């Protein structure tokens, strides 16, 4: 044992000598690194007026100080924002990472993770996926093996014995299964439970009750019944979509029960995008730099058809229904019910679609700062982790983006991403641009249901 110890000491000693001779240095521990963002207009994510000429001090992946006239610690790495806006990294709280734009796509996951970061989306909630797949993805990102945003996930949709989406669902025949299902989900690291359309009220109540014991909130997508009173009173945390029917009495009950609404106003496919945005949006760098050519060509073709083929457009998009939900968004907001930004992204326009979501919220009547809050502070509150991230405040995770323009005045300026920081580490955005020469370029499985 003594001789073995001496051998180890000798090896370490030789290694230290080698470092001195070669000039190599052992990197400082991550928790010791200090970074200062200076000369920034700061939007804190709380909805407050921006701080002009502000600074943010970051130490070990967390925010240490925010404000104007801060003293920058000696030896800190300086990032000069030069008047750009510093704001919290954005969160999309309704995505599906197993979808690739047309169907299921498990092999092309890195393209979508890159697209999210490229667009300044530093946190997502996957609301229905193949559980081992999204669990492994989450673990790999946490371990630093792959690059990606912070991921929360629900795993499979909990649906009836005849699930709508079998490949990403777990069937529940009766409420007696709730305990087993919630334990299975908890043991596999989920952050919440997604109760889907065909479940009965007693089944949802059972999931809520057993989920509470394990710290798992329930998010409900009940299709036409989203926002209905008989579901509002189940104890759920949030509805996965903006309700299509909103009345004053139900809004009061929602507020009393602290129910939140994930907005998903951007959902609707290429026809909706084209009808509301024309064709020019396809030229956005956030789309062109992250979308495979085959998918972009198909999107362009379908978008053009949506503007010329009235029947095709009417079959896939209802302007009346869109306006109804826009009206409901404002009614819900005015009732004091928290709105949380989410897109229901299915792999098409990943990342970019969240900026469209924020534009639609402003179109519905929110101010730009109020819209930003839905993708920052409110997103963190949905997970009850607003003490850890979501706003630019001391002690919180340093997920920060720098953008050109003034998104507090023009919400579209959130698109002008210049820098992305996740947990205090600056992401090299140029490396996130899709390279079709090295990308797997495997197309989605056109999975039939």
TrEMBL record:
Q: Which UniProt keywords apply?
A: Hydrolase
Q: Where is the signal peptide?
A: none
Q: Which residues form the Amidohydrolase-related domain?
A: 86-426
Q: Mind listing the GO molecular function terms for this protein?
A: hydrolase activity, acting on carbon-nitrogen (but not peptide) bonds
Determine if rRNA processing is one of this entry's keywords.
no
Q: Does the keyword Hydrolase apply?
A: yes
Pfam (any one): Amidohydro_1
Q: Which InterPro entries match?
A: Amidohydro-rel, Metal-dep_hydrolase_composite, Metal_Hydrolase, Metallo-dep_Hydrolase
* Descriptive protein name: Amidohydrolase family protein
